[in-house]
Amino acid sequence: MEIIILIAAMVLVGLITTMLAGVIWKGERPYGISGDMLAASLTAIIFGLIDWYVIPAMGFSDTMKIIGIMFEPLLGALLVLWLMRRAKKK
After folding, report:
1. 80 and 38 in contact (C-beta within 8 Å)?
2. What does pLDDT average to in each consecutive run of 10 residues of the chain (90 residues)?
3. What residue spans define the domains of the chain?
4. Integer Cα distance of 81 and 66 in angstroms
5. What secondary structure does DSSP assign to 7-49, as a single string?
6. How far apart are the first and last CA of the chain?
7. Neighbours of 48 (CB within 10 A)
């Protein structure tokens, strides 16, 4: 059940990141809003699952796991969206 909640939360993070990217990079959506949503959501899910399983396996506390899950998927999704924009310009 925790995994379903985590995935749903990461999809929400991806959607929020898509909207945030539209504010940061005005008018630059080379793959459209649906491409941004898909890329940001998939990136957030992958980063969230990695944080959920890898951080405790490395011996860090639950607090560190929560901090990682709060920030890393958002920053990772922003990085992927930025890379998509840079790659399309070239």
Report:
1. no
2. 92 94 86 94 94 89 87 94 86
3. 32-85
4. 23
5. HHHHHHHHHHHHHHHHHHSTT--TTHHHHHHHHHHHHHHHHHH
6. 43
7. 25
